[in-house]
Amino acid sequence: MLHILKQIAKSGIRTESAPAPAEAMVVVARLQQAVLRTLGRALAIRQVDAGSCNGCELEIHALGNPYYNIEGLGIRFVASPRHADMLLVTGPVSRHMAIALQRTYDATPEPKLVVAVGDCGCTGGIFGESYASLGRVANVIPVDVEIPGCPPTPTQLLQGILAAITVSAAPPP
Amino acid sequence: MILSALGLTAATLASAVPARRASASSGQLLAACRVAWEQGGQLVALWLSDERDRDRGYCLRVLLRDGEGLTLLEHTMPDGDVQYPDLAAIFPAAGRMQRAAFDLVGIPSEGDDQRPWLWMASWPIDQFPLRRDFEAQAKWQPGEETYAFVKVEGEGVHEIPVGPVHAGTIEPGQFRFQVVGEKVLRLEVRLGWSHKGIEKRFESMTIAEGGRLAGRVSGDSTVAYACAYAQAAEAIAGTTVPSRALWLRALLLERERIANHLGDLGALGNDAGFAFGLAQFSRLREDTLRTNLAAFGHRLLMDVVVPGGVRHDLADEDAERIGIECATLEREMRILRDIYDDHDGMQDRFRNCGRVPPDIAVKLGLTGLAGRASGQARDLRCDFPVTPYDTLGVRLATSTAGDVAARVAVRFDEAAESLRLVRAILDALPDGDVHAPVAQVPEFRQGLGYVEGWRGPVLVALTSGPDNSIRRCHPHDPSWQNWPVVEHAIIDNIVPDFPLINKSFNLSYSGHDL
Prior knowledge:
The complex is a heterodimer.
Chain A (H helix, E strand, L loop, with lengths): L1 H10 L21 H7 L3 E7 L5 H8 L12 E3 L8 E5 L7 H10 L5 E5 H6 L21 E3 L6 H13 L7
Parallel strand pairs in A: 1-2, 1-3, 3-4, 4-5
Chain B lengths: L10 E2 L1 E2 L3 E5 L2 H13 L3 E9 L7 E9 L2 E9 L16 H12 L51 E6 L11 E7 L2 E8 L7 H5 L4 H8 L7 H16 L5 H29 L3 H22 L8 E2 L2 E2 L5 H27 L1 H7 L7 H7 L3 H5 L7 H4 L5 H4 L11 H25 L17 E7 L4 E8 L5 E7 L2 H11 L8 H8 L4 H4 L1
Helix pairs in contact in B: 4-5, 5-6, 6-7, 6-14, 6-16, 7-8, 8-14
């Protein structure tokens, strides 16, 4: 036990301050400010891999490391879409995963946010659209924020996630 | 394996590791596989190609490995109602490869299990994407598919369906557990959810463009795939890669291995309820990725390895930073390994959990890191060393315990060895260019790349088309061999241990589903 405590003390606190939200990543601002204030930063995210190469997943995992410490911001990953405020979706969306993604979206309670992750989630990326791939996430479910990158860095991921819950845009028509 | 004894004539095959090819009738194919199995050989990969445009019908390629190198058996079948011998009775891992090959090219094996493997009603069942007359952009309304999972019957047996969307941040796959109480009687995995048409996509690219796609077959092994692809392209183009580039590739491969082992060691601690392990190892992994970004311009090292060499040279100050980081990692990992080893609660979860004894590992063809943890002492870096591994002398890490604890121990040993290799590479890194031009490639040239990635051996089989295009490219992930063994490893364990067992293998879905 003592050497565990020693290692913790020696490692110190590595957490860095969170980046500013990247408003440019917001595609549509669907949620009312009032709702966003309610969600605040107590955000529950359900991650869905809809056909990625797993590169994006590695960087999403990194959000939990001591440097980014996403849970310290009040944001956590949950095991069910029914507990989630936000779907964090990587792509391209394989045709095989289209129904599963749609059902996951349907199971997520309103109000809900969808963040498309990575070049593939935003545009279909190198895989594009084909007999097997539906391309970008927005081809299957409505997307609020797009975070490009192959894969996006954890900092870019945080910028996009924070933008989704803090952006002050005009209310939806 | 002596091919002439089987009536086969060996020809050379362009490859960075020793390789030969031979045309085989169905009888010769079966006989060669039996002999290979009896002599301790393994099945590396099996794939089909449409050769009708060359009046050669369809070609089945079966790649075998033994102590001498690789043997590619090519079995040509006429266009029409044909089948080829079922090899799953000899190499069980062939079963799913044969089913996948049917889904994509439409030529069945004679095997009993003819269930689809990659097909899930997203395209018509009588259309085969890797036939040359199949339109890559074709789109169909998805149909319904009911996959015939094997059911276990009996008093008290029930089924737990999981996936394809999982509870954690992992790739999509479907698991059916047949359980009594908490004990797992049987697990059946259904994969293919991540199928995004990678092999078809290759066929729309030039050989130069394909490297980027190869680096995205399985993101966690981007360096291994990029290296294997580059080896294959260079083999058919006759490229002499500058030695500095080869040394840097090895450095990148070892850094990919270190980063993945750090990630897994943390996640395995966490899955055993030891969050401290995740915090510590994920911190070290992040340090490693930041150094990657500074030295090579990408945290995961994507697109650094290209046919002809590498795209980024290593600056002296970055080499120094990597050297210092090695010392830090060695020190930290020693401390953390002691903590893991001394932690009774965690060791209690690791030991005897998800055990694959060596005899089962041989029968099922378990490969790579998981294979080495079950007594399968094979590593391409030792068995067929290319530059610079021939001078570095890689020390093999093995165990015969075959449980989660063994897979953890092999990771610790391999990460430590990789740190030693990185230092050795930095000490002896030759000067010079890091890239050589890749010559125009004539049509119908075939080459192999074969690289020991962190998970296991990664294969890329490349055939050129006209004007430097890709005619066919088949990437093969070690996960093909190891997924069926995960099904075996969980038997008689309890359901709550599955995440731990699964993580101890950490197999790729994307690399398998293509």
